[in-house]
Each structure stands twice: as structure tokens, then as C-alpha cells.
Amino acid sequence: MDVILAGHNIDHEIIAEFQSLQPERQDLTPETVAAAYARISRNPRPVNELRAIARGEVEKARASNRNIVFEMGHSSIAEHAVFNLDLLGVSRLLVEEIERFRLASYTEKSQRYVLLADDFVIPQEVREAGLEEIFVATVHRQNRFYLTLYEKLLPYVLERNPELAADPANRSLLEGWAKEDARYCLSLATETQLGMTVNARNIELMIRRLAASPLAEAREYSRRLYDAVKGVAPSLVRYTEPTPYDRETREAIRSQADEIVSKMLALSPGGAQGEGIAPPALAGAGTAADLVRLLDATPAADDKIAAALLHGSSNLPLAGCLEIATRMKIKEKATLIRTALRRMKAYDAAPRAFEHVGLTFELVISATCFAQVKRHRMATITVQNYDPALGVTIPPSIAAVGMEASFRKICARTEETWEQIRRTAPAAAAYILTNAHRRRVMIRVSAREIYHLARVRVDGNAQWDIREMAARMVEQGREAMPITLMLAAGKDGFDALYAQIFAGEE
Fold it and tell me: pTM, whole model, 2 decimals?
């Protein structure tokens, strides 16, 4: 056996410096690795020799990539070319669009740890609509209030945590707690930055899809992303213009959905034909318990998990495993699933078999909470637009320092500006909304992902907003599949729950 390092990421400035010293070099591109790996399936030479050949014949490697990726359709070859990109001066709203692409890695400037300056994006749509003045005035008002909140919240946090505050080493932590609640009044136009690692196949998809976005900022990002990579891997990033599917599908669905909803609501809401349908004005979040609703769960999930475990550990067909699982007593199923979990620690992922069952939730959550939810890329997440009718999420600490009325006033002024923008530039209206404003989110998660969600989001160190949401998800999920989710807990509560479930077992 040989394991040979084929390459690794290094800073592009180092590559550029090296290329300036040896301008004749043409092989400083990830395309040669992609081309070599593309030949593995049909060439008997060792792969390290194939890489050497590709480095010596860059134009042939590029021609091979174009043929294999775009003519033969083996797009996975483009995944061997990986890029690191710095994204600066982008809005929080655009980041939500960027991070919809799941097969990439992102690290973003955190509003929990960085005290923000008065940096924000002014959308092109707002300028063209003649609303720049009111937009800027509203953002300035939000940002001034953010600093006022921080000054009020920091003493409150220090007073509430005297033991931590006594140690200067904890100062940054406690300041972060004040910042994370103060940020709820900041707009989605707030500038941020992030580092992104993504392969060429997904860069091409990102460029094409965002080129079709209704947001001018997203279209500009698409152009700049293409400019950044086109000279490095021209054979792998080629089809960057949006297709009719990219450009027209979203609006076509929206138009048809509007027609269907209007028709159904006209059939006397609450009557026999429209029972259970509420017009938008009456379909708000309701009570706190309504913010997380389990809408669907795999029927007989515990049976299916037992069957999946039997299937992976026997030679029986799945139908036979399902038949056995349905005949097993509850105690027998519990024993089998407990065996799968018996040696688990707080850092272990749940068994892969747990992906065979899932749950669908509707969440009504703040932009702050959604910024964290969207990072769970193994979930399937679809969203509605931010909607002021759903209310705002106000951190309890803001009420505790007597600033809730002022916070609501800022939100009300924000919504007045939102309404003006919505009338003339609807695609850009969300920029002015705050981190406290809410949207509806539909999320489908497997039981395995619920375990991961619980570990990192129900944990005591998690941000309070998403912690409350995740705790409700786990609670409702456990009602649907009590045996399967018996060990779903935050990292800090895992050991106690484990001891409770496996008490007396060694």
C-alpha cells in the first residue's frame, strides 16, 4: 500500500509569487489533478505517474477535462479541483443565498464575537428606487441603537455572572454574550466577510444559479466569483450563464402558487371547502410553542430503525427485516437499538442506519436563529421570505435592561421603511429588516441529523435562540420515535442522560 500526497491548498499569493519567478510554468493549476484522476478508470499506469504526465501536458489535460466533464458528462471530475476564496463586503442577506449551496465549507465573521462598525451594503435596487436616503437613515438608527444596547447589556451580563466576571480571562466570553443579544437590531444589509472552500463543479453551479437571482448583489457576486476562478481552471468552469430553468422556475412557481392560494382562500376560509386554511394576516406565529411544529415523521420509525440495523448485520432482504421488526416486542426493539447506542460518547455520530427515518418541522424563527440553522447542511431546508407579520424575536436580556419598548420602536420604524421598499423594489426589501425579524422555514432532518443538532444546539454553550428551538425539535421528535431518539441531548447533558438510560449496565 502507498498513500501519496497529491497536493494541498496553499495561499494563492504564494503561487503568484512562484509564477512570477518562473513565468514559463503552466502547471500551477488544479486542472492537472482533475485530469489525472479522470484517467484512472481507463489507464493502467499508477496515478502518481498520471499526475506527472498531466503536469507536463497542461493543454492536453485541459482538453481531456473538457471532453470528460462536458462532453461525456462525468461532472464529478471537476470536484477534484478545490478553491479557497475570501468574500469581503457582502451583506448578511447575500450570505444566506451563498450558503444555500451545501457542498462547500464556510467560515463567517461572527456577530457574536465581533463588535460591529457602521458597515452595510446599500442595494442597487434601493438606489434605483430613489430610497437610498431613508434606507441609510434607518440603518444608521439601527446601528446607533445596537451600540446603546451593547452598553446596557454588558454591565447586565457582568452582574449576572459574577464568578466568570471575576476572572479577566472570561472578559471576551462575557462581552460576546452582550454582543450576541445586541445584534438582534442590526439589519440584514450589515456587511460581513467569510472564507469559502468549494470545488469547481459547485463553483460553476453557484455562478450560474446566482446569476439568475433577483438580487443585484447576488448577480454581482456571481460575476466576481467567475472572474476570480476563470483563469485558474478554464477547462472546469465553463457553463456559467443561467438557463431558463435557473431564471424562470422560481417566479413561475410563485405565480402559480399565488393563483392556487387565492383561489382556495376565496372558497370561504373556515368553511367546509376551506377548513384549516387561514389567510396570511391570521396565520402568524401564535404562541411560543407554535414556533416549532412537527408536521411529519416517518411512520413506525422505531420499527424501521430496528429493521435497518438487522439489515446491515444479516443477509436477509429488507422486507424480511421489516417483517421481523414489526413482530418484535417493544422491549426487544429497544434492546437492539440500545446496543447500537451503548458505546456512544458525546462526540460520536449516531449510526448511519438512523438516516433511514426522518422528521419534517416548520419553524418560525428569527434571522439570527436561521443564520445558524442554515449551517446544518445534511438537512433539507426551504424558506419563505422574511415577513414582519410574523413578529420579532426579542432577547430576554433586552427586556431585563428595560429596552424592550425602544427595541420595538426601532423594529416599527424599520418596518415602515421595509414597506416603502417593498412597494417599489420588493426583491431588496429584506435588506432593511433586522436579525430579530422572522421567516417560516421548512426543515427535513433524519434521526441521525437530529442527534447532531441536539449535540451542538441543545448544549448549554449554544446561543439561546437556537438552543430553545432545537430543544423543542428534540422534544417533539422523541414523541414520534422515542426509542430511536433516546440519547438525543446536548453535549453537556449527554453523560447524565446516558447514565440514566444505561443505569446499572457495564
Answer: 0.90
